[in-house]
Amino acid sequence: MSTTGTPQTVLITGTSSGIGLAAAVRAAQAGRQVVATMRDTAKAGPLRRAAAEAGVEDLVQVKRLDVVDAGSIAACLEEVLTEYGRLDAVVNNAGAGRVGTIEQGTVEDVRSTMEVNFFGVVQVTRAAMPHLRAARGRLITVTSVGGVIGQPFNEAYCAAKFAVEGFMESLAPVAATVGVAVTVVEPGAVASEFVDTIGVDVPAMLSAAGPYAPALRTYIERTVASFAQAQTPAEAAAPIIEALTAEKPAFRVQTSDWARDFTGRKLSDLDGSAVQAMTAAWVG
Ligand SMILES: NC(=O)c1ccc[n+]([C@@H]2O[C@H](COP(=O)([O-])OP(=O)(O)OC[C@H]3O[C@@H](n4cnc5c(N)ncnc54)[C@H](OP(=O)(O)O)[C@@H]3O)[C@@H](O)[C@H]2O)c1
What we know:
The chain is of the alpha/beta class. The chain has a single domain (9-280), classed as Rossmann fold. Helix content is 51%, strand content 12%. It contains 11 helices and 7 strands. The protein has a 7-stranded parallel β-sheet, sandwiched between helices. The termini are far apart.
């Protein structure tokens, strides 16, 4: 609750499924007025049902926002300010993966991965900053362990998540001077719609992979096995709510012990050899 007695307002992107949906319900349970955005509001059924089951449907308002459409971002923010008069926090959660060989894909594929995962975050952040400044609020962005350690066959996705990490790490001290706390949240494997959405046709991909096929097969087998231990979206959303509600949120948080151990390898690997040895073992 704010000092004026009205609930704090948090806007979350990509709430039709997965981590964003779970974060929307949990933020409402934490007493926030949630503006749950999605690019296609016809997909709001699962969120509305989860909010109703949790008894917080009155605190979850669905609005359209496509992170690659600047007009939809501006229109959504204008509505939020008109209806609630304030925006206390933004959770940049929307994202989409891409797996494949850099030779199979096109430069356009790389650009569209950057559009959603990086420029989408930039557009939402730029538009929201004046309002977050006014509220001395929070800016929370879901990146990935893939934003710290580059992962084989995920070149475009990891490049986008690295870009987001660099952007937010640079912005954090600047935003702090105007009262806005910046946090990046790094999940490992999460059992959401994420893998389905990548739309990988494994046999087709392997047959087109040419000299990379054995490495790609090894990578896919390893990844499928790793998703057997995936977190639930609710588990991955918990650190987002912590960043939203803590008095002094950390800049960087991982969503699991596994993610902490994994990203920790990078920070102690000054010449890059430990990480290269680890990821080389994933493909051979
Ligand atoms: N799942 C994992 O293993 C994992 C691991 C590390 C990081 N992450 C990150 O966690 C975040 C959430 O992913 P998730 O696992 O919850 O996957 P998810 O269930 O596929 O959710 C992704 C959400 O992003 C939305 N989205 C995609 N493009 C969008 C756009 N242009 N504008 C607005 N929304 C858009 C999707 O909407 P539609 O329903 O319309 O497609 C969906 O609501 C992403 O940033 C992802 O990179 C996930």
